[in-house]
Write a structure and sequence with these properties.
This is Glycosyltransferase. The protein is mainly alpha-helical. 86% of the residues lie in helices and 0% in strands. It has one domain. It starts with a helix and ends in a 6-residue tail after the last helix. The model has no long low-confidence stretch (mean pLDDT 95).
Length: 137
């Protein structure tokens, strides 16, 4: 999963530069690492740690949104924040279902989250195309 974050950072380098791509990669890797900590704490039924890491996760999402919306005026801070928060909620629901052995719910939530992430990717792509139309002729 960390390699995926590297690849996402690399995708934006032609548009926003090496430094921006590396910054996004770092933020996205932090996102994945925090998720891993949340899962580990949830497996141990350590609610205090889950709550602490969850706050970090939302802070990280806010940092990603701030980074992206500062880079591209076509990305609404409100819309992107709502998208990230929905992704975090869906991921949390998926983990809870999995840990409780609710396999059908887990699969359904994973499918919804996948569709949501594809929609997020489309939203981000549309913003890049609008900002750099000459690169897409």
């Amino acid at each position: 999963m960390l390699q995926n974050q590297e690849e996402i950072g690399n995708i934006i380098k032609p548009y926003y530069g090496e430094e921006a791509g590396n910054k996004l990669t770092a933020l996205l890797k932090e996102h994945i690492l925090i998720a891993g900590k949340i899962i580990d704490a949830a497996k141990k039924s350590d609610k205090a740690a889950v709550d602490r890491f969850n706050k970090d996760w939302y802070r990280n999402a806010d940092e990603i949104v701030a980074f992206l919306t500062n880079a591209n005026p076509n990305w609404s801070k409100q819309v992107l924040t709502e998208m990230f928060y929905k992704h975090l909620k869906l991921t949390t629901d998926e983990v809870e279902d999995r840990l409780q052995g609710k396999w059908m719910e887990d699969i359904k939530t994973a499918d919804v989250n996948e569709t949501h992430l594809i929609h997020m990717g489309d939203f981000l792509t549309d913003g890049i195309v609008k900002q750099f139309p000459n690169k897409f002729k």
